[in-house]
Amino acid sequence: MFIQAQPPMYDPSDVQPMRDELVAVGITELRTVEDVNTALVGKKGTQMVVINSVCGCAAGGARPGVAAALQNEIIPDELYTAFAGVDREAVARVRQLITNYPPSSPSVAIFKDGQVVFMLERHMIEGYGPDQIAAMLADQFARHCSKPGPSVPPEKFASLDFVKVCGSSLAARAARR
Question: Which of 33, 48, 55, 86 is the catalytic position?
């Protein structure tokens, strides 16, 4: 389980607004291997982990779709996120725990009693809007979860404003460093 420490690919301050969108709906950030182990290893119940990303499909679909899904009447017991390209060791550890699926970002994994029971991969996010992504997740919440939702009050959710731009310029800037 050795994971080599790596510096972030993106300036953490550049991605902070993208992080904040998920934190605003009650999702806890996983920034280290230790955070991931504490959150996921040997846990009972349901955990959702969002692998966040700078890409356009994260901005246009994944983040607002996840946020909308968490307004559902039933949600996972625990909600987590790690940011690809920034929380590199944490993401690598999450990916070690997600067996039978290739690395994908953005993505959403639902664990139940330590096993992945659903994986929303990037190819299932690309080309879909937030409402469609929320519906896919809500269907899985109904199948696997039992905690009453929503994760935040509807009025707080209604006040959120999501980043509407693709962060791929961040990737180009990181490549020039």
Answer: 55
Q: Give catalytic status of residue 55 as yes or no.
A: yes
Is 166 a residue of the active site? no
Catalytic residue among 24, 36, 57, 134: 57
Place of tokens 């199948």: 143
What is the H or E stretch that residue 5 is in? none
pTM for the predicted model, two decimal places: 0.91
28-69: per-residue pLDDT in tens?
A: 999 999 999 999 999 999 999 999 999 888 999 999 999 999
pLDDT digits (tens, 9 = 90+) for 118-133: 999 999 999 999 999 9
The CATH architecture assigned to 12-176 reads 3-Layer(aba) Sandwich (3.40)
Q: Cβ distance 127 to 133 under 8 Å?
A: no
